[in-house]
Design brief:
- The protein has about 180 residues and is mostly helical.
- The protein has eight helices and no strands.
- The longest helix is centred in the middle third of the chain and has 18 residues.
């Protein structure tokens, strides 16, 4: 605040600025007890987080008319499986989910095929039955882990070709069957 004009002031006034008492060291040391300093092997299985993952729930609704379901399959189970795999693909590519990720996921599970292989449908009904109602994190991780990262990083056309050749080359059934025994 400025002083009124009638208050005498010296012609040269010393200006004092507040200064901090910083140490000369530029090294930063964390003293917070819960902070992780490096990734440990104990933290495996948490997946890769990606931006705007909730958008996949909106995208998946656009495929409702294109998906072929067996008589005992439900849309919500197929949609959740597609979201799980689509989110893994999007996070591997370092971006938010897009329609191509969800489309690739539906294709991998054979939901776009009007006449999928009988063993694939049987496998889907065994593994994905009541997936939407389940809150089993290990099952969801197994679904994501059953498809290798290398396959998911491929272009959509290559994924479709691999499915047409043999769906077993894409989905590692041993990962999912191992989860059932846990």
């Amino acid at each position: 605040m400025a002083a009124p004009k009638y208050v005498p002031a010296p012609p040269i006034q010393s200006k004092h600025y507040q200064s901090s008492l910083r140490k000369g060291s530029s090294r930063w040391i964390s003293e917070r007890p819960a902070e992780q300093k490096h990734a440990s092997r104990q933290n495996l299985g948490f997946g890769n987080q990606g931006p705007d993952q909730g958008y996949a729930l909106k995208i998946v609704q656009f495929f409702r008319d294109r998906v072929y379901l067996a008589s005992s399959e439900e849309w919500n189970d197929a949609a959740k499986a597609a979201v799980i795999v689509g989110l893994k693909r999007a996070s591997l590519l370092g971006r938010a989910p897009s329609r191509y990720d969800i489309e690739a996921a539906f294709c991998l599970w054979g939901y776009f095929d009007p006449e999928p292989a009988f063993d694939l449908v049987e496998f889907r009904m065994t593994i994905l039955k009541n997936l939407n109602a389940s809150h089993d994190y290990l099952l969801q991780r197994a679904i994501a882990d059953s498809i290798s990262s290398d396959k998911l990083k491929q272009e959509l056309k290559k994924i479709q070709e691999d499915y047409q050749n043999d769906w077993r080359s894409i989905i590692d059934t041993t990962v999912l069957l191992r989860n059932e025994t846990l």
